[in-house]
Amino acid sequence: MATLADSFLADLDELSDNEADVIEEEDVDAGNMEEDVDGEMADIENLNYDDLDSVSKLQKTQRYVDIMQKVEDALQKGSDISNLGMVLEDDPEYQLIVDCNALSVDIENEIIIIHNFIRDKYRLKFPELESLVHHPIDYARVVKKIGNEMDLTLVDLEGLLPSAIIMVVSVTASTTSGKPLPEEILDKTIDACDRALTLDAAKKKVLDFVESRMGYIAPNLSTIVGSAVAAKLMGTAGGLAALAKMPACNVQLLGAKKKNLAGFSTATSQFRVGYIEQTEIFQSTPPSLRMRACRLLASKSTLAARVDSTRGDPSGNNGRALREEIRKKIEKWQEPPPAKQPKPLPVPDSEPKKKRGGRRLRKMKERYAITDMRKLANRMQFGVPEESSLGDGLGEGYGMLGQAGSGKLRVSVGQSKLAAKVAKKFKEKQYGSSGASSGLTSSLAFTPVQGIELSNPQAHAHQLGSGTQSTYFSETGTFSKIKRT
């Protein structure tokens, strides 16, 4: 039976064997990793950024040489009208146009690569120049013109840059911290500038060929957006047939690039507009209407491309009609709104308005009705001066009151039915309806004939309310009175 020490020794032996296997596996992995790293480093070393030929290879490709040769031959030969009856996709010039569109994109990318190479090399001489001149071709021309010259007053930049930019460049060059380049680096920089200018000339030649043939390939589309924009749209879409099958919302985005606004607002940035923004119609439209004009141009361009893909109108009349329609619509958008016409007042009603009748309205009219006395006070007789409270026209005038002859007021104010009813209600409210009489009432009545007599005040009030004269006359019709002795 093995002891505890023997089991420990056996475990140690197994651990040592496993460690040896792990070390061998790590050695194998490390060897493979070194091989991969060596391969990657070899590729990176082969791509030498100091050598222009290692980063710019387009001009040495066979595709570039063949297309440029065909373009030069086609420009010298001119347009071949004998192929008008041929199917568009089978036409060799149409295939050459498609290839030229793809080549123009490659040339633009190649110019950007060469521009970065020139900036890296010339930064030692004039580091501020790249922030003053942004266009790659203008930058290459200026670098080639300046060279290693430190005094820019001796360099004539007229014609290469605007006069304002030339002044800024000259002032900045006088205070720059750059130093002259070595001869070897300067030669590489000048060579890169020549190569960029050559590519730019080739690109112009390709675009001239495409524009000259767009009138034959897509006459209606070229009429609306122009030959250059039509060529770019067709090249980006992959041909005229592909452009005709594309919806208008996608045609609007062809060539659009998302702009890096560095955190600023996107309210005024037109990042959903592609090559259509380069058209004459878009540029002449006010900024507030450009998005609407862009959508309109995209829709009409799609219709024109569909007509051109079927060779429906080789003369381009359809495109001219669509362009005129676009122009009229944009002019209509810019018209001011119609002036607001003055609204006449309604005809007044000559008939009296219908009012609500009934007991309530009658009571209201009776409450606010003018009395006869007030009517006379408000009226004046012609040629007769009115009497006043203070005389000589001073104070309150009496109008026609008292002009009958005696100079006194002849009109007595009679109590209205409504006032009598209100007085009765007030009396009942004041003394109550339990039969109690006022403390000022008396059983003595004063008559103008018999003097003082005794009477019942409550019976007298009751008889007044019933309209009878039973106070003075008995049931037998004789006059009864009590005479005081």
UniProtKB/TrEMBL annotation:
Q: Where are the transmembrane segments?
A: none
> Which SMART domains does the record cross-reference, listed alphabetically?
NOSIC
Record field: compositional bias (Pro residues): 335-349
**Chief place where the protein resides:** nucleus
Database matches in InterPro entries:
Nop_C (IPR042239), Nop_dom (IPR002687), Nop_dom_sf (IPR036070), NOSIC (IPR012976), Prp31 (IPR027105), Prp31_C (IPR019175)
Comp. bias regions, Basic residues: 353-362
Q: Which GO terms describe its molecular function?
A: RNA binding
UniProt keywords, alphabetically:
mRNA processing, mRNA splicing, Nucleus, Ribonucleoprotein, RNA-binding, Spliceosome
Sorted alphabetically, which PROSITE patterns does this protein's record hold? NOP
Keyword RNA-binding among UniProt keywords: yes
Identify the stretch(es) annotated as Disordered.
330-362, 457-485
Q: Name one GO cellular component term.
A: U4/U6 x U5 tri-snRNP complex
Q: Which Pfam families would you find in this protein's record? A: Nop, Prp31_C
Q: Where in the cell is it found?
A: Nucleus
Record has Nucleus as a keyword:
yes
Ranges of biased composition (kind: Polar residues): 465-479
Cite the Nop domain residue spans from the record.
217-335
Q: Which GO terms describe its biological process?
A: mRNA splicing, via spliceosome; spliceosomal tri-snRNP complex assembly
Which PANTHER family does the entry mention?
A: PRE-MRNA SPLICING FACTOR PRP31, U4_U6 SMALL NUCLEAR RIBONUCLEOPROTEIN PRP31
Q: Of which family is this protein a member?
A: Belongs to the PRP31 family.
What's the protein name? U4/U6 small nuclear ribonucleoprotein Prp31 homolog
- The source organism is Juglans regia (English walnut)
